[in-house]
Amino acid sequence: MTRKINTAVIGTGRMGSVHVRNLAQLIPEASLKVICDIRLDVAQAVADEIGIERVVQDYHEILDDKTIEAVLIVTSTDTHAMIIKEAAEAGKHIFCEKPLALELEKIDEALLAVEKAGVKLQVGFNRRFDKSFKQVCEIVASGEIGRPCILKITNRDPDFPEMRFLRVSGGMFLDMTIHDFDMARFLVGEVEEVYAVGGVLIEPELKDFGDIDTNIVTLKFKNGAFGSIDNSRKAVYGYDQRLEVFCSNGTAMAENEAENTVLKGNTEGFHVANPPYFFIQRYAPCYVEELRQFIECVRDDQPTPTNGRDGRAAVVLGYAAWKSLRENRPVKISEIK
Amino acid sequence: MTRKINTAVIGTGRMGSVHVRNLAQLIPEASLKVICDIRLDVAQAVADEIGIERVVQDYHEILDDKTIEAVLIVTSTDTHAMIIKEAAEAGKHIFCEKPLALELEKIDEALLAVEKAGVKLQVGFNRRFDKSFKQVCEIVASGEIGRPCILKITNRDPDFPEMRFLRVSGGMFLDMTIHDFDMARFLVGEVEEVYAVGGVLIEPELKDFGDIDTNIVTLKFKNGAFGSIDNSRKAVYGYDQRLEVFCSNGTAMAENEAENTVLKGNTEGFHVANPPYFFIQRYAPCYVEELRQFIECVRDDQPTPTNGRDGRAAVVLGYAAWKSLRENRPVKISEIK
Amino acid sequence: MTRKINTAVIGTGRMGSVHVRNLAQLIPEASLKVICDIRLDVAQAVADEIGIERVVQDYHEILDDKTIEAVLIVTSTDTHAMIIKEAAEAGKHIFCEKPLALELEKIDEALLAVEKAGVKLQVGFNRRFDKSFKQVCEIVASGEIGRPCILKITNRDPDFPEMRFLRVSGGMFLDMTIHDFDMARFLVGEVEEVYAVGGVLIEPELKDFGDIDTNIVTLKFKNGAFGSIDNSRKAVYGYDQRLEVFCSNGTAMAENEAENTVLKGNTEGFHVANPPYFFIQRYAPCYVEELRQFIECVRDDQPTPTNGRDGRAAVVLGYAAWKSLRENRPVKISEIK
Amino acid sequence: MTRKINTAVIGTGRMGSVHVRNLAQLIPEASLKVICDIRLDVAQAVADEIGIERVVQDYHEILDDKTIEAVLIVTSTDTHAMIIKEAAEAGKHIFCEKPLALELEKIDEALLAVEKAGVKLQVGFNRRFDKSFKQVCEIVASGEIGRPCILKITNRDPDFPEMRFLRVSGGMFLDMTIHDFDMARFLVGEVEEVYAVGGVLIEPELKDFGDIDTNIVTLKFKNGAFGSIDNSRKAVYGYDQRLEVFCSNGTAMAENEAENTVLKGNTEGFHVANPPYFFIQRYAPCYVEELRQFIECVRDDQPTPTNGRDGRAAVVLGYAAWKSLRENRPVKISEIK
To answer: Which of residues 256-285 of B touch A (CB under 8 A)?
Structure first.
């Protein structure tokens, strides 16, 4: 039998508990030893439900535990960089949720620590592990439909997250579009310039803290291709996740999934189901797959599929989009330091 | 410039006027010289609208006109065989709407006259000219998906025709399923045995004259394949026209067309358009194409794509289905004389 | 916390191990205490992988264990009825895979024991728990699209199971069509008469033991509706699972699922993914849901969603289909004793 | 019988001959009296094929003919404005192909003449008459899905037109995107600002005359909504015509049409047909409908559905896009004089 990787999860909120369950039940190559949350009762409830033996409140206990090889950081964004740094210094391999941080200095410090320690770092860009998006990527990479010309990504949430979360999220480009920036880099390559338009069309409360709920970001890629990302915080028909890479000899698209495959027809027309409503439902298999690959990379000493450079690049694009929106002009990525 | 074929249309009711318009406007290889209807005013109105110069009440005037090379017979079913016979004897090439007749003796007499006269006869099995059904046929015929195993045809009308028409129609199997019987022979080959179930599930008035509104006919083909046809007189969501040929190495299906390509999404789901409601709308291009090919066959002295044998075979299958339904047993085609 | 139901699984082959994993990981209301297989090493491997503590070779040990409340019977078909009887007599609630048995006498004996003991029995008609099929059922049951007129079920396997399995399976109607018979009863109601056609179109070896690989079964329902089921053992494009209930005021269909949602377009056309290839993959959520409901029924003392009567009725329909095929005539269900 | 409008067609090239055929055969409310082309032989060939009696080389003969009430201008773009002006002065109602001209001064002069003469002017924005796009417009206009937030238009040609045509076309934004600019105004309203990216990704020869083959145009609408148009001159899979209006309470999209409805499945997946390859085929019903409405407006003295203001506005947007591309900055519509 293959060696199991001893792991710990730091942060057991909504996403954290998803990772705990996946690690515990669906990744036989990992052994989940301990979970941690500053809200000890939250962590304990998760542990009870899933059957995890050890629960701690202070993540330093995990970092001090020599038997733990890898940690998952699923805490609030403002703590990511600090914990990465400490975990790297403690010699742990690291899986961290996106974004790495909202400040580039913090990211750079964390990545430096990772590099020095020689540990692995994977960033939670779960969508790269979606079977449909992955296949689009493979089709494009194979060259069979030629060179990318136009990338289109539609990413629309079914509804707003809680306002208190939004207020510290870094805003739409850093919280939501960041996934699309990573996907753009994954599918087409490095971006040279972005131009963002956007505004508050749905929820006026956002204006209090300078956020938006609707945007379109135009991309110029270094390889000459162009891209358009459109986002909304509220697509009442469900979580809208589509993309297309139009190429010189064809096109490859990923359409939405649907809740079911039922067609109902009557005099009014035909009715089909909405896409899944919730991101955790829509991307459930991705959360498993990203961890499976992380654990494999740790075990086999391979590079992680989404690394610190990817994590940083997406944040830089988010900053560039904010700058573009505020100054109403195209912004070169090289302007973001 | 190529020679134009002088033609005449006998019968200018609903289907007749469609053929008149198509011949006059969309088949440049034909020259429509005269149209005829026993209701002279009906024919005159059609002629006025479309711009046909000559109108007659008695089709014998057409048969006597030596300049007319080809006639379209679009009269009521009970007169088809008689007019075919006379037209053949007058040396005219003939396009006749289905069914050739409701009695096999009449059909045989008509076909004999056609054979003796050496004129061409095409039967109006318009669906063979549908672009989608034709492509299914080509895929199957090419052998690329192997040998046919299961044929499925769904043919459902959006609503009942007028009761006075139904009373003289020959009943569901001879009026409606007859298209599917022809399609079955077109796609898979000769049928050996049929088994029919059916009844009155929608319109009780049909019981007065022994007709049905819902049926399923099971087919055994001579080549070993099986088939299932399902029909309804009333699909409230529109004219439902689908088929599939499942083969040993794949499958080929034709799905319904839709009124438009609009998707509307809201909290209730997504809405798509119904299929076209009316057969004349759904099969409009087929009515043109079948005439175009008929005129070509006349001009180039080629065999017609749907001949008298096809017209007879579909009627035989209709009879077999009625016999099967009445006796509640599978009926061999060879039982029908 | 709610009381957990102590369970055991008897038979840990392909389906058995699926149930073991689901019970252990995804049904928190159940506590899987022991698993059993006459091939002890097979059971032990499953136990090791999933983390089950107790493994036995003789299921009587389970029946004798007073702490076990419910058993899953996932053994070979020929042992189902016997184990049901013994388990009922031991007071266990029972989930049994389909078919209950290949002989009606055995089924009746088992059901009598269940009735006497007052235990619950659920039969593994997993497809009733499919989200799409369930929704079709709900639409039809609600009456919003009127009265059922035509039921169509397409059920085609991607490839043959092993020949040694087929030889003892009861043949295509009892092994494969049985699911469709149950679905027909679920969606439309009791069947009065069946007519079956079928043959060997793909795999000649089946002729050795009188089985077939292709069939169409026509149904007459007691409520006047009609049905058509088509089956093939080999749909090279994947596991084909579609159905439609056409009603007097509309229609409801469940289309195939697809491996992914990618569309690839080039000069040749557009390419879309196959349906999932394997039944365990296609119906994975159903296997969980049927167990979840079984455990709930046991806990809350409610009737099971698929009971012994359902299990028997589907076998009766399978027998009727075989009789119909052999005698080439419609067979009334009342003929099967 | 209703009065017929006497019409003439000036210009009988590719689009002109389509209009001639439609007027002659499918618009019974119009009487096509004369057609005109400076290439007299071209006009004569069209007249012979379709059966038009009078052919002239100089359009002034038409303008001088008092019996002609309405003219269609389907000449090369550089002559549109001049002929409009003269036709208006001659008191003719005018249908003119887009664009009205490549210079705003010429357009303004022509529109002034139209206004003074009090004649009707309709611009050939055929896509507004597409059944799917029209329905999207109606859904949005009804308010049932709320307020527009994001407009997306994909408009991709299957291949390049001839280079000699492109050289005098005004470039991609004035020749191709102009349709999308009009559609944007039709669906969402007036545009305030555009930002264009684009380049030569397919056909280097375009660089000789400063044109591009790929672009994305971002729109800010006066009502606060945002839009993204993407264009390519070469979509090898066919003429790609899709759009979506995402709104605060739902979304409405028009998907591509397909050549046929055939699905072919085998081990490789399922194959579906390409969209129609050619714009004249794709929009054939629109060309009829726009003329039908033009003739009706003339007959009933109603405003035309696409007027001079629409024709001018789309050209202004084309200019703004070119300016934006050249200066790499968002350009306000008010900057274009």
So the answer is: 265-274
